[in-house]
Amino acid sequence: MKEENLRIYHEKREIENLSQYAALSVNSKGRDYPQVKCDIRTDYQRDRDRILYCKAFRRLMHKTQVFLSPTGDHYSTRMIHTLEVAQVARTIARGLRLNEDLCEAIALGHDLGHTPFGHTGERALDKVCTEGFKHNEQSVRIVEKLEHGGEGLNLTKEVRDGMLNHKSSCMPSTLEGKIVRFADKMAYINHDIEDAIRAKIIKNEDIPKKYTDAIGTTATMRYTSLINDIIRNSVDKNDVCMSEEMHTVFMGLRQYMFDEVYTNEIAKAQETKAENMVIELFEYYLKHFDELPLINKQIMNKYGDSKERVVCDYISGMTDRYAVTKFTDLIIPVSWGY
User: Which one, out of 83, 271, 328, 331, has a CA that is 20 to 30 A from the CA of 232?
Assistant: First the structure.
């Protein structure tokens, strides 16, 4: 097997080994801008690598998942969440003989557009931007327009579709996208339970017995139960789904987390401050637009975007700590004297 035939070899392996319902690399709807094929990687493998090495992905390391500015070293960040989603998605895809590479690419890119301070920052920008702000839409905007100095990553349509439609209110066009949609919820519920226990917001024994009896008392047990149920109920089907019983348990556990953790006053003690900070930064840069980096203004001119959209680009791209630093520098008065 010659090196220049590796991609073709992998494409043939997909045809031979994957399910009839899998999204094959050779059947991709392609990219917005045609490119010469890679000699080694399939299109979806290439997309995965482009996401992995982009700047927006690196910034996920310093973006909040749920707990704002936690003091411990083991709380989940947006990057940890992303990597867990990718791992869960690949496991399910392998069990269903679907395209693992497409799942991984979608998973790695699905939260690129998240703001500093997680959903708090997202709500703040959505509140003040007249055009609205949604992190899934921003994720796609990043890979289409913002990365590589305004050139974008030129990803395949299947990867962008999965990124855009990973939220509960959306439905991806591929089974691989549906897998990531499930994996996203599974990952955040499991690591948020661990973080909430670590923060002493809940105890393991507080979780209602009707849920722990059904899927277990540890993250490993919960993942195993959920993944096995999805595979059993989706194998050789043109769909990805849970059993009715497991879906009821899963959604019940999710609601328990919303009631006891996501709206808990300890976990959310800093939310108002963070929201006000993001709003103040938005209003400041809208009034002082010339202070934005040159690249942001060049992208605006290239694509005909509004000032509000470009300010959202800049602020949503900030890490938590960078947003705090900019807010301190721009908004907070400093002492002075002769």
Answer: 83
Percentages of the chain per state (helix, strand, coil), in multiples of 5? 65, 0, 35
- The separation between the first and the last C-alpha atoms of the chain, rounded to the nearest angstrom, is 76
Report pLDDT digits (tens) over 120-170.
999 999 999 999 999 999 999 999 999 999 999 999 999 999 999 999 889
Alpha carbon distance 286, 307 (integer Å): 7
Structure tokens, 106:
């979608």
What is d(CA 126, CA 157) in angstroms, rounded to the nearest whole number? 26
pLDDT in tens, 279-334: 999 999 999 999 999 999 999 999 999 999 999 999 999 999 999 999 999 998 87
Q: Provide the 8-state DSSP code for 117.
A: T
9-35 in b/e form (b: 16+ CB < 10 A) is ebbeebeeebbebbbbbeebeebeeee
Q: Is-contact 180 172, C-beta < 8 A?
A: yes
97: left (phi over 0), alpha (psi -120 to 50) or beta: left
Structure-block tokens of residue 91: 């496991």
Neighbour tally for 79: CB within 10 Å: 18
Beta strands in 219-282 (DSSP E): none
By the 8 A CB rule, do 229 and 243 touch?
yes
Q: Is residue 279 within 8 Å of residue 124, measured between CB atoms?
A: yes
CA 128 vs CA 11, 66, 258, 315, 324: distances in Å: 46, 22, 25, 12, 19
Residue 126 exposed, middle or buried by CB count within 10 Å (0-12, 13-18, 19+)? middle
